[in-house]
Amino acid sequence: MAKRSIKVEDLRRFKFVSDPQIRPDGSKIAFVVSTINHDEDRYERHIWVADAETGELTQFTGGPGSDTSPRWSPDGSRLLFLSRGREPEKKTQLFVINVSGGEAVKVAETEEGVGGPQWAPNGRDILFTSKVWTDKKPEGTDVKVVKRIRYKMNAAGFFEGRRSHLFTVRVGGKPRQVTEGEYDAEAATWSHDSKSIYFVTSMAEDADTSRIRDIYRVPARGGEPVKVTEGGYSIADLSVSPDGSTLVFVGYDRPDELAADNDLYVMPAEGGKPRCITPGFKRSLLMGVGSDLKVSTSTSTPVWSGDHIYFVTADTPHCNVYKAHVETGEVETILGGVTVDGFSLSGDGSKIAYIAMDNTHPCELYLRENGEDRRLSGFNDKLLDELNLVEPEHFTFKNRLGRTVDGWVIRPTVFDPSKRYPCVLEMHGGPRGVYGNGVFQEFQLLTAEGWAVIYTNPRGSAGYEEEYTMGVMRHYGEVDLDDFMDFTDEAIRRYKWIDEDRLGLTGGSYGGYTTNWIITQTDRFKAAVTFRSICNWVSKFGVSDIGFTQPESISGAKTYWGEDLVKQMLHSPLYYVDRVKTPCLIVHSEEDYRCPMDQGEQWFTALKLNGVPTELVRFPGENHELSRSGKPKHREERFRHLIRWFREYL
């Protein structure tokens, strides 16, 4: 059967594999499969189990609920998971089921829902987080009283008066709140004896504006938390050694730096000076490769096995699994040359369950055993057998500093080398995003229309050494502009079939900012589509969930007023809007708190007043994650607007 070009509607047929969890004895792997229910415009998520020996796949949960976060009990006899919609409730609650069969039992139910569940080593207790009101919950009013500068977060909404705290519960018992206070307890993990819990937070008065985070220990039955670290570190995640003597955390020791690499640190569990064990590892931990066809797996937690600590992070163009020796710090690549998005180890460390993708295949489940890799799932094989997806061509070039940089080009699906084709420059967000071996339906849809796609990782991107990532700090719109223009020139030089008179550009978030910025600096692009973008850093400062943290990153500004306000404006596309000639489509989500709706409105109004062809497409009920996890029908409509605009102007 002849293969066909991909269509917008194919989104509803993709299946998304995530969160692989191998049973302690290595015999089975639980994981999550997400599908799209187009008629009801929602995602359905269920837990599946793979037999590690035979590869047989079995759907483990079903029904109307959205089931996620499977976690094996230490003896492997039970599986906990989170579920929303299993009963009439709308919040996510905690369930446990015997692996041998039977009905799932609800173990914990909270008003705000349950998150981050994990078994205690004793196999009896379960730790989880839930938001609670730190003061009395307001009754009879919808008025919000805001006291802290961090009072909202994209996708989470407004959380004034509510903080994330720790709870424990036993099957058949009632949840017990372990922490309380005006702080958020994050990255929690059990002690080896199940008597204490370690977590990360800041209890300082400047918690909302400081990058410093500390580790605390609290009795599992509740009590006063004890501070284990002594400040000076920005800590993102942690775990405890199997014998309980040592903590390892992911973080950095220069909290005043704007883009410092995350490293691994170890320290005595009772307190002491942390020691970095990855000083020679020139990549930042916790980074992943982008894709619009995945449900991301949280893989930040460092995993102990023997005298090594395993972790995953991006090394362009891949995302690899590594292990670091606790004493020597020697780092070894365990799974390399693939794009891993999540993994787990069997109890003895002999097996690794992981999910991975590449440029033309979404994530599937794999197993590494005895140095051999087996693919266990093929949920997308049937659809992919129908589609003619184009493999991106990877190439490198040197930027103005002489540094070798990665780039990619995707030819049109139907290609004749004797013809010339329009070309779209795609730009990622961040700026610490990473392009690599990850699949994008968006890119393939553009090539199906008869256009080429080019993309690169400019200075500021992750997946490279720290100096490269820091290169854009205090220089937004400067070095990144140089890199994008040089890359475009290089692509045109290499691929003579690219029609330099029919160039388009697009991007989202930081990539939306660079889209806006570039069309104020040059009119070489004939069409632009800007998603969830920024046009005015001055106004973003007070309305974005992270805007108040950004001025120094953007321009080097140390304050938020006076001449520093002028610095911010000089890095804002709005300041130069009178130069724009490129037709620009603006796509924005109305509940985007990261790049708020007013940014799209300001850019639209300014372009209209200056006579630039433009439209503003507003998506109600969506946030900053529209392109990755928005409502399925909205995601499809977003694609159609993108294609429509380029059809008209390219």
Structural descriptors:
alpha+beta, eight-stranded mixed sheet, four-stranded antiparallel sheet, 11 helices, 38 strands, 16% helix
What characterizes the major β-sheet?
Answer: 8 strands, mixed
Radius of gyration: 25 Å
Question: What's the shape?
Answer: globular
Q: Given the helix and strand composition, which structural class is it?
A: alpha+beta
Please mark out the parts with pLDDT under 50 across 5 or more consecutive residues, or reply none.
Answer: none
**Beta-strand proportion:** 35-45%
Mean pLDDT: 95
Distance between the termini: 32 Å
How many individual helices? 11
| Biggest sheet strand line-up | 31-32-34-33-35-36-37-38
Number of strands: 38
Q: Percentage of helical residues?
A: 10-25%
How is the topology of this model organized?
Blueprint: E1 16-22, E2 28-37, E3 42-51, E4 57-59, E5 66-72, E6 78-84, E7 93-98, E8 105-108, E9 115-119, E10 125-133, E11 152-153, E12 157-158, E13 162-170, E14 176-177, E15 186-190, E16 196-201, E17 214-219, E18 226-227, E19 234-240, E20 246-252, E21 263-268, E22 275-276, E23 303-305, E24 308-315, E25 318-325, E26 331-335, E27 339-345, E28 351-358, E29 361-369, E30 372-375, H1 381-386, E31 393-398, E32 404-410, E33 421-427, H2 441-448, E34 452-456, H3 466-470, H4 479-494, E35 498-508, H5 510-521, E36 527-531, H6 537-543, H7 551-555, H8 562-570, E37 584-589, H9 597-609, E38 614-619, H10 626-629, H11 632-649
